[in-house]
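Translate sequence into structure tokens.
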Amino acid sequence: MVGKYTQFQWAYEILWVLASLIISVIACWSIKAYIREDFFWYIFGNMFLGLNYLRWIIFPRHSPVMYSFWFKMVMLLLNIPITLFVVRYFMAAMEVFDSFNFSFGDQAGQLVEFGTPLEVIFYVKQLTVFTISSFLVLILIFEIRALQLIFKWRQVPQSLLK
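Result follows.
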């Protein structure tokens, strides 16, 4: 365990967040004009969070926030409503894509803009399936990894064990 975090560790954390932001923008920006605004932010947010979860799973020692017991506990609790929200929105989106009813969105308006080429619609569907399924798997792996790190680094507070 590291007691103090160096500026290098925090710079590494910020660079990873910027890198995941840039990767998410590059992957999602081409479809922004063809889909609804909230659906764009949903795909973008899933990709951004998925890349950060991947980093926290693979490189926990390089992230200063992963050394915090309370950060891991908050994330363990926040992942439950995040998972339910992601699954609900994913099921609504897949119902629209699978029924080829592109004019009926998630309870309001359109999911895909009128006049969108079929190739773009298929790309949006593939991007949606990939980002959401990988994000759900990463949430599950993060839950396991966070619990493993709590016990491996002996971070359980003594007040919780009494």
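Note: Helices lie at 7-28, 37-58, 69-98, 118-152, 158-161.
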